[in-house]
Amino acid sequence: MLNELEILRNSAKLSPFIYWGTSLFFILIKIIIGLIFLLVLKSALRIFFRNLGSKSRLASYKKRIDTLRTLTENIISFAVLIIIVFMIIGGFGFDVAPLLASAGLLGLAFSFGAQTLIRDLIAGFLIISENQFNVGDMVEVADTKGEVIRINLRTTVIRDKKGNKTYLPNSKIEKVTVFKVVPSQSDK
Description:
Elements: H1 2-53, H2 59-91, H3 97-113, H4 115-130, E1 138-141, E2 144-151, E3 155-159, E4 165-169, E5 176-179
Antiparallel strand pairs: 1-2, 1-5, 2-3, 3-4
Helix pairs in contact: 1-2
Protein backbone atom coordinates (compact mmCIF):
# COMPACT_ATOMS: atom_id res chain seq x y z
CA MET A 1 0.00 0.00 0.00
CA LEU A 2 2.81 2.39 0.86
CA ASN A 3 4.56 1.50 -2.38
CA GLU A 4 1.43 2.37 -4.45
CA LEU A 5 1.10 5.70 -2.65
CA GLU A 6 4.73 6.50 -3.45
CA ILE A 7 4.15 5.68 -7.14
CA LEU A 8 1.13 8.02 -7.26
CA ARG A 9 3.10 10.80 -5.58
CA ASN A 10 6.01 10.43 -8.04
CA SER A 11 3.69 10.31 -11.06
CA ALA A 12 2.00 13.53 -9.90
CA LYS A 13 5.42 15.18 -9.76
CA LEU A 14 6.28 13.94 -13.26
CA SER A 15 2.92 14.85 -14.81
CA PRO A 16 3.92 18.40 -15.90
CA PHE A 17 7.12 17.08 -17.44
CA ILE A 18 5.22 14.40 -19.34
CA TYR A 19 2.70 16.99 -20.56
CA TRP A 20 5.36 19.43 -21.75
CA GLY A 21 7.45 16.63 -23.23
CA THR A 22 4.60 15.33 -25.36
CA SER A 23 3.61 18.90 -26.27
CA LEU A 24 7.15 19.67 -27.42
CA PHE A 25 7.24 16.43 -29.40
CA PHE A 26 4.04 17.28 -31.27
CA ILE A 27 5.17 20.87 -31.80
CA LEU A 28 8.41 19.57 -33.30
CA ILE A 29 6.41 17.29 -35.60
CA LYS A 30 4.28 20.28 -36.70
CA ILE A 31 7.40 22.33 -37.42
CA ILE A 32 8.94 19.52 -39.48
CA ILE A 33 5.72 18.95 -41.45
CA GLY A 34 5.35 22.70 -42.05
CA LEU A 35 8.93 23.05 -43.29
CA ILE A 36 8.59 20.01 -45.56
CA PHE A 37 5.37 21.51 -46.95
CA LEU A 38 7.18 24.80 -47.54
CA LEU A 39 10.06 23.08 -49.37
CA VAL A 40 7.67 21.09 -51.58
CA LEU A 41 5.69 24.23 -52.37
CA LYS A 42 8.85 26.19 -53.23
CA SER A 43 10.07 23.36 -55.47
CA ALA A 44 6.72 23.27 -57.28
CA LEU A 45 6.87 27.05 -57.77
CA ARG A 46 10.41 26.85 -59.15
CA ILE A 47 9.38 24.14 -61.61
CA PHE A 48 6.31 26.14 -62.66
CA PHE A 49 8.25 29.37 -63.19
CA ARG A 50 11.16 27.55 -64.87
CA ASN A 51 8.74 26.03 -67.40
CA LEU A 52 7.10 29.42 -67.84
CA GLY A 53 10.47 31.10 -68.41
CA SER A 54 11.77 28.43 -70.79
CA LYS A 55 9.09 29.31 -73.33
CA SER A 56 10.91 32.52 -74.21
CA ARG A 57 14.45 33.26 -75.22
CA LEU A 58 14.21 36.92 -74.26
CA ALA A 59 16.46 37.77 -71.33
CA SER A 60 14.12 40.52 -70.15
CA TYR A 61 11.20 38.08 -70.02
CA LYS A 62 13.28 35.61 -68.00
CA LYS A 63 14.25 38.39 -65.57
CA ARG A 64 10.58 39.30 -65.19
CA ILE A 65 9.66 35.66 -64.51
CA ASP A 66 12.49 35.42 -61.97
CA THR A 67 11.24 38.56 -60.20
CA LEU A 68 7.70 37.18 -60.04
CA ARG A 69 9.01 33.81 -58.78
CA THR A 70 10.99 35.46 -56.00
CA LEU A 71 8.04 37.61 -54.98
CA THR A 72 5.65 34.63 -54.95
CA GLU A 73 8.10 32.49 -52.97
CA ASN A 74 8.59 35.22 -50.37
CA ILE A 75 4.86 35.78 -49.90
CA ILE A 76 4.14 32.05 -49.57
CA SER A 77 7.11 31.51 -47.23
CA PHE A 78 5.93 34.32 -44.98
CA ALA A 79 2.37 32.96 -44.89
CA VAL A 80 3.48 29.38 -44.12
CA LEU A 81 5.86 30.56 -41.38
CA ILE A 82 3.08 32.61 -39.76
CA ILE A 83 0.85 29.52 -39.81
CA ILE A 84 3.63 27.45 -38.21
CA VAL A 85 4.09 30.07 -35.47
CA PHE A 86 0.37 30.01 -34.67
CA MET A 87 0.45 26.19 -34.60
CA ILE A 88 3.36 26.31 -32.15
CA ILE A 89 1.54 28.78 -29.91
CA GLY A 90 -1.58 26.60 -30.04
CA GLY A 91 0.55 23.55 -29.24
CA PHE A 92 1.59 25.14 -25.95
CA GLY A 93 -2.07 25.36 -24.99
CA PHE A 94 -2.67 29.03 -25.67
CA ASP A 95 -5.83 30.21 -27.39
CA VAL A 96 -4.80 31.62 -30.76
CA ALA A 97 -8.15 33.28 -31.56
CA PRO A 98 -7.30 36.53 -29.72
CA LEU A 99 -3.86 36.52 -31.35
CA LEU A 100 -5.42 36.12 -34.79
CA ALA A 101 -7.82 38.97 -34.08
CA SER A 102 -4.93 41.14 -32.86
CA ALA A 103 -2.87 40.23 -35.93
CA GLY A 104 -5.81 41.20 -38.13
CA LEU A 105 -6.13 44.58 -36.42
CA LEU A 106 -2.38 45.10 -36.61
CA GLY A 107 -2.43 44.24 -40.32
CA LEU A 108 -5.28 46.67 -40.86
CA ALA A 109 -3.40 49.45 -39.04
CA PHE A 110 -0.25 48.66 -41.03
CA SER A 111 -2.15 48.73 -44.31
CA PHE A 112 -3.54 52.19 -43.52
CA GLY A 113 -0.07 53.44 -42.63
CA ALA A 114 1.64 51.86 -45.63
CA GLN A 115 -0.93 52.59 -48.32
CA THR A 116 1.57 54.26 -50.63
CA LEU A 117 4.07 51.41 -50.30
CA ILE A 118 1.35 48.83 -50.93
CA ARG A 119 0.13 50.79 -53.98
CA ASP A 120 3.72 50.94 -55.30
CA LEU A 121 4.18 47.19 -54.84
CA ILE A 122 0.89 46.29 -56.51
CA ALA A 123 1.56 48.68 -59.41
CA GLY A 124 5.10 47.29 -59.77
CA PHE A 125 3.76 43.75 -59.81
CA LEU A 126 1.28 44.70 -62.54
CA ILE A 127 3.91 46.55 -64.60
CA ILE A 128 6.21 43.53 -64.47
CA SER A 129 3.56 40.87 -65.02
CA GLU A 130 1.72 42.73 -67.81
CA ASN A 131 4.96 43.55 -69.63
CA GLN A 132 3.94 47.20 -70.00
CA PHE A 133 7.52 48.24 -70.72
CA ASN A 134 10.99 46.72 -70.38
CA VAL A 135 14.47 47.74 -69.38
CA GLY A 136 16.01 49.48 -72.39
CA ASP A 137 12.72 50.87 -73.73
CA MET A 138 12.42 54.57 -74.52
CA VAL A 139 9.40 55.86 -72.60
CA GLU A 140 7.65 59.02 -71.58
CA VAL A 141 6.05 59.00 -68.15
CA ALA A 142 4.44 62.23 -66.90
CA ASP A 143 7.10 64.88 -67.61
CA THR A 144 10.00 62.43 -67.89
CA LYS A 145 11.27 61.06 -71.18
CA GLY A 146 14.17 58.65 -71.40
CA GLU A 147 15.42 55.08 -71.26
CA VAL A 148 14.16 52.65 -68.64
CA ILE A 149 17.25 51.40 -66.80
CA ARG A 150 15.61 49.50 -63.94
CA ILE A 151 12.18 48.20 -62.96
CA ASN A 152 11.48 46.72 -59.56
CA LEU A 153 8.38 46.30 -57.45
CA ARG A 154 8.54 49.73 -55.84
CA THR A 155 10.16 52.05 -58.38
CA THR A 156 11.03 52.48 -62.04
CA VAL A 157 14.26 54.30 -62.92
CA ILE A 158 14.47 56.34 -66.14
CA ARG A 159 17.61 58.03 -67.52
CA ASP A 160 17.06 61.08 -69.72
CA LYS A 161 19.27 62.28 -72.62
CA LYS A 162 21.46 64.30 -70.24
CA GLY A 163 22.15 61.22 -68.11
CA ASN A 164 19.97 62.30 -65.19
CA LYS A 165 18.17 59.48 -63.39
CA THR A 166 14.54 59.86 -62.35
CA TYR A 167 13.15 57.48 -59.75
CA LEU A 168 9.39 57.11 -60.20
CA PRO A 169 7.23 55.34 -57.63
CA ASN A 170 5.24 52.76 -59.58
CA SER A 171 1.95 53.99 -58.13
CA LYS A 172 2.55 57.38 -59.80
CA ILE A 173 2.90 55.83 -63.26
CA GLU A 174 -0.52 56.32 -64.78
CA LYS A 175 0.16 56.87 -68.46
CA VAL A 176 3.20 55.57 -70.32
CA THR A 177 4.19 56.17 -73.91
CA VAL A 178 6.63 53.55 -75.17
CA PHE A 179 8.56 54.73 -78.21
CA LYS A 180 9.33 52.07 -80.75
CA VAL A 181 12.81 52.50 -82.17
CA VAL A 182 12.59 52.03 -85.93
CA PRO A 183 15.89 51.73 -87.78
CA SER A 184 16.36 54.42 -90.41
CA GLN A 185 17.06 53.66 -94.08
CA SER A 186 20.77 54.37 -93.57
CA ASP A 187 20.97 51.80 -90.76
CA LYS A 188 19.75 48.95 -92.98
